[in-house]
Specification:
Layout lengths: L1 E9 L2 E10 L5 E5 L6 H8 L7 E5 L10 H4 L2 E4 L11 H9 L8 H7 L15 H13 L5 E5 L7 H16 L3 E5 L3 H7 L2 E6 L2 E6 L12 E7 L2 E7 L2 H12 L7 E3 L3 H9 L6
Parallel strand pairs: 3-7, 3-8, 5-6, 6-7
Antiparallel strand pairs: 1-2, 1-4, 8-9, 10-11, 10-12
This protein binds adenosine-5'-triphosphate.
Adenosine-5'-triphosphate binds next to strand 2 and helix 1.
Length: 278
């Protein structure tokens, strides 16, 4: 999947201002960014649901601006808003959608994968918000997509459902499905993404694996300890040496020692700070 110089405006709003992305087959790729950054617009253009103003886009070798039915059947999409709940049961709904695809997965297997086997006979309308979201995910994967787009997929999930969902994403990626994930949960990015791009004000401000995003691996580590009854803090790019020196000074145990590396959240907040919507 390749995007070069993508632009999109809505009247006066320049929602996407020249985005480049390369997403490799089988990769879990996360897109992070504040509300209104242009993530959904970008993803909807990739999905063939929104027209772009400029730039080049290729998804599975096709320009999403000229989508074909066959091409659409190779994509799985879980939109941000939950699907309308009809009077159908969960199993009926999933079976109904399976019929649209040339080589669908088994509906009951998919329901088990998303943790809805016990609700297969319930009407979708009667499900809780998080359970309905799982129906959306089931519909996203029923067609055995080569690329799965997940737009804030775990909103409303309880912690156990999120973990289960993460395992599902890993297993889909393990089977070779490319996953494009937009989310506001940084732990989700850390748990799942091979690479992440941070979009702010319609541009990519950083890209890389979560562990090294924005120079995270080399960023300053904060070391705190207690000395003469008072807390001490030191920021260092060489934490091991600092700890060794402190240990030598104290002749062993360092009182109250903590070593804190910057979290993905620290790095993310630094990256988007000061990006102006000019
Ligand atoms: N259909 C539309 N008509 C007019 N403006 C729009 C439309 N869709 C989005 N926008 C504007 O474009 C900008 C980018 O919106 P977009 O939905 O792509 O952001 P986002 O990064 O997905 O945000 P969120 O995290 O809130 O989902 C925002 O300023 C938004 O108000």
């Amino acid at each position: 999947m390749r995007v070069r110089g993508l632009t999109k405006r809505y009247g006066e709003v320049r929602a996407v201002r020249g985005i480049d992305l390369s997403i490799h087959p089988g990769e879990v790729y996360a897109i992070l960014g504040p509300n209104g950054a242009g993530k959904s617009t970008t993803v909807e253009i990739l999905e063939g649901y929104r027209r772009r103003d400029g730039g080049e886009v290729s998804v599975l070798g096709t320009d999403p601006g000229r989508p074909t039915r066959r091409w659409r059947s190779r994509l799985g999409i879980v939109l941000q808003t939950a699907s309308d709940a009809a009077e159908l049961t969960v199993r009926e709904t999933v079976r109904h959608f399976a019929a649209y695809y040339p080589d669908p997965r088994d509906p009951d297997e998919v329901l088990a994968q998303v943790g809805l086997a016990g609700k297969a006979g319930s009407r979708v309308r009667r499900l809780s918000g998080g359970q309905r979201r799982r129906v959306d995910v089931a519909l996203g994967i029923i067609g055995r997509p080569e690329i799965l787009f997940l737009d804030e997929p775990t909103t409303g999930f309880d912690p156990e459902a999120r973990r289960r969902f993460w395992a599902l994403v890993r297993s889909l990626a393990g089977d070779g499905t490319t996953i494009v994930l937009t989310t506001h949960y940084l732990d989700e990015v850390e748990a799942l993404a091979d690479r992440v791009s941070v979009i702010a004000a319609g541009r990519v401000v950083a890209e890389g694996p979560p562990g090294t995003l924005g120079g995270r691996a080399a960023a300053m580590t904060e070391i705190t300890w207690t000395e003469d009854g008072a807390p001490r803090t030191l920021a260092t790019g060489d934490p091991t040496r600092t700890v060794v020196e402190l240990a030598a000074r104290f002749g062993g145990e360092i009182p109250g020692l903590t070593v804190t590396r910057p979290t993905l959240e620290d790095v993310y907040l630094r990256l988007i700070k000061g990006v102006r919507d000019e």
